[in-house]
Fold:
Amino acid sequence: MSLAEIHPRLSAEVEVAKAKIDSYAKVANDNRQKTLQLPDAAKADLKEGLPVIDPRDWQGKPVPERHWFVEGWIPHRTVTNLSGAGGSGKTEIILQLIAASSLGMQWFGYDVAEGPCLYFGAEDEADELHRRLGTIVDRAGCKLSDLEGVRLIPLAGADAVLAEPDRRGTLTATAIFGKLEAQARALRPKLIVIDPSADVFGGDEINRAQVRKFVSMLRGLAIDFDCAVLLLSHPSVAGLTSGSGTSGSTAWNNSVRSRLYLEADSKDPDARVLKIVKANYGRVGESIAMRWDDGVYALDSGPDPVIEKVIGSKADALFLELLELFAEQGQNLGVQAGTSYAPVKMAKHSKGKGYSKDQFAKAMQRLLDAKRVAVVTEGPPSRQRSRLVAVQA
Structure:
């Protein structure tokens, strides 16, 4: 017995479906057509369930403006990653960012979008956040009571995992993620900070699928609540060594739209440099030099020219003093790197007063430029030697 005999209506629907498929295939395989012309029925079927856009519909409409939480650094409605070694100051500069947004102030010379901010942290206790924010607002000439719209969720020592894999290995949101969503729904923040990734991501950081799913979940927060999401993380040893600030799977870098790296200076414990190492919507390579200043980080405007001049004058005077001492001892000093290189010999001398080779090298160049020292070449053409001498005024 045929299908038509058993169920005439179902048989008719099957025939209609076959006709649709044949018509779609004919259109798709017709190489003579210059443009894709699908039947209206096919267009309706293709659009069902997918956000299909025909860009021709945008013609004549204004191009949407790109929005930033911090222009060039932290884009709106997506995820930015900030990495840096433990103790480098990531949390500190982000608390300063949150305060700047609430108080309507600049952050290291940049304008910040004003509005509520939500901080979800798994490293610091409430007392520590209290101390840090207290210092920040005090240095800004404000009070903690001025921080309107700031909400902190300190979970140090508690379960802060936002997503973890199920039995099949598929990353899924936890109940804590749902609670974070509820807080965001109530606050409608301009910025959500999640600190750090190691304590909130319960998956395998080298599993690309899990990493991408996690970042996608955070991007969903950014879109749903029309805000920026900032994810803090620690780089691997390789990431620290290379200066890239990366860790785990490359999916961490590939999935976020912007990535920042806070780098410490091994020679200056108070100095930091914040760099843009990835920017889908801006310029890579921008940096902010900052310095620890009595409880907060401040823009590093470079050395004080007055102090530098005083230090330089002292170094110049000591250079001339040591040059005379070496001459009296019959030791010739030169300007070329080698066994008689003046800056090295002076830096090693007991009367060098702790000045470095680089400081003596700068002093030597200043004195050469000022014609207070000169290079004298002596000896026959076959065995000429140069030495550094003081020029009598």
